Amino acid sequence: MTTRYHYDEQLEDLHLKILKLGSMVEEAIDKSIRSLVEHDKALAEEVIDNDDVIDSFTLEIDDECVRIIATQQPLARDLRIIVAGLKLATDLERIADHAVDIAKITERIADEVYIKPLIDIPRMAEMVKEMVKGALDAYVTTDSTRAIEITKLDDEVDGIYKQMFRELLTYMMEDQKNIHQATQFLFVGKSLERIADHATNICEWVIYIDKGIHEDLNK
Questions:
Q1: How far, in Å, CA of 30 to CA of 122, rounded?
Q2: What proportion of the chain, given as a percentage, has pLDDT over 90?
Q3: Contacts of 30 (CB under 8 A, 6+ apart)
């Protein structure tokens, strides 16, 4: 087996591990939102319990990136792939943390009757999941054009959050009893907004791999 062949295998293994982490994170987002919508504390607990697995797998990816750099001394595009791998893993792990935050909110309010039907949160969640999936698809194909396209959804996510903020503020002003629950829903919205920002970061790293430049798409 040639040295280059072994090196290519290491890069491919890193690529597959990042995609596996991405799949785990997508599942965490989906379950956290479902737990909130369905008042399902058991599902929320699944998300929380699985966070240690995601954290451990992220560290495994970090270690692999460092090992490849130390043993192979990569240059140019190969080095960009590995550096981006480190950054992608961090963004994905932080997305999972936000899913855990949402699951913890489910545990706090699942036994309550919600002050309003959940409409904006599921809408935001669908857009956010589309952004994460699209960012990972762009990573698979190293498609800068697709990466830039995906980030345009971030403005829509921000717009829904602002609309939700105004509506929930009205609920709080109408009745002080609504303040606790409305605040929890705002925390959920903020977590989804942050997930969209991390998806945008992933898109930036796709462009970095492809073109060797770091564009700030979180404007």
A1: 10
A2: 88
A3: 129
CA angle 155, 161, 166 (to 5 degrees): 130
DSSP string of 189-203? HHHHHHHHHHHHHHH
d(CA 180, CA 6): 56
Note if the pTM is more than 0.90: yes
| Residues 10-46 as b or e (16 or more Cβ within 10 Å = b) | bbeebeebbeebbebbbbbbbbbbbbbeeebbebbeb
Mean pLDDT score of the chain: 94
Q: What CATH class is the domain 3-211?
A: mainly alpha
DSSP line for 9-49: HHHHHHHHHHHHHHHHHHHHHHHHHHHHHTT-HHHHHHHHH
Say how many CA atoms lie within 13 Å of 148 toward its Cβ: 10
Q: What is the pLDDT of residues 156-195, one digit of tens each?
A: 999 999 999 999 999 999 999 999 999 999 999 999 999 9
3-state helix, strand, coil in the chain (%, to 5): 85, 0, 15
